[in-house]
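Hi L., both proteins are below.
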Amino acid sequence: MEHEDFMRRALALAREAADAGEVPVGCVIVREDEIVGEGRNRREECGLAAAHAEMDAIAAANRRLGDWRLENCSLYVTLEPCPMCAGAILNTRIARVFYGARDGVFGACGGVTNLFMENFPNPPALVGGILGEECRGLLASFFQALRDRDHSK
């Protein structure tokens, strides 16, 4: 499979999040061309600040692989990870991070700061912009619909 194929699966998860009223972010974790963990935003659904797509996917991959270490795994996420998720990526030793849209508000991979450039052990390789236009478009549509709904009240 190609990088775009994995990001398309993350986009499908992001659309599920949007349909559930969540900010549309989806994530998959891949090892040896196989998806071993999936997640989507669930903060509203769970009432938990840490219920981000990456955290959901990391937990699923940990369960599936039976290990807290996710070495030799790649993470694909539709929105640049925030500092919390970047910390989890560092702690699980994920080898590569691919993201779609840059986040100029909370992005920790260059949008605001880049935690992966700091002196932490095992920093992942980082590639941004995978299906970036589609990822940005999904987020923009979601937030525009929220603004339209709020103005119609």
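That was the first. Here is the second:
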Amino acid sequence: MMNIGRQKVENLGLSDTISFSKEDCMNLSFPEASFDAVIAAFGIRNFQNLDKGLEEMHRVLKKGGHLCILELTTPVHFPMRQLFKIYSHTILPLYGRMISGDKTAYSYLTATIEAFPQGEVMVGILKKAGFAEASFKRFTLGICTMYFATK
């Protein structure tokens, strides 16, 4: 994915402005207050230690900097909640098995979505990590949620 991103940045002539690096999210190599914004999409539910990862994001943000996290979530309202449960526990694993040949290929995805703190609980975790303001907005009938936080 990073190689594709690098190629797109190069094609747009933005190689001097945008760079890519692979980092350990629990121990970032960047100094404190390095960034105006930190963006994470579809990955923090896999952090081994969510609190530590969020504290690192907070650490590298400048005062007044913004965090934006996009993550898969479980819908909260009827009937989408029930439909998503049926889809994620039956259709998605079946499709994953057909495509990959692995029985557990997409069961892991469902398990991580269901185990991840969502909504107001996640807002509380963001505030515990040091963020002054935190909020969220659900999209696609609750299948995806965007979290916003400010240092």
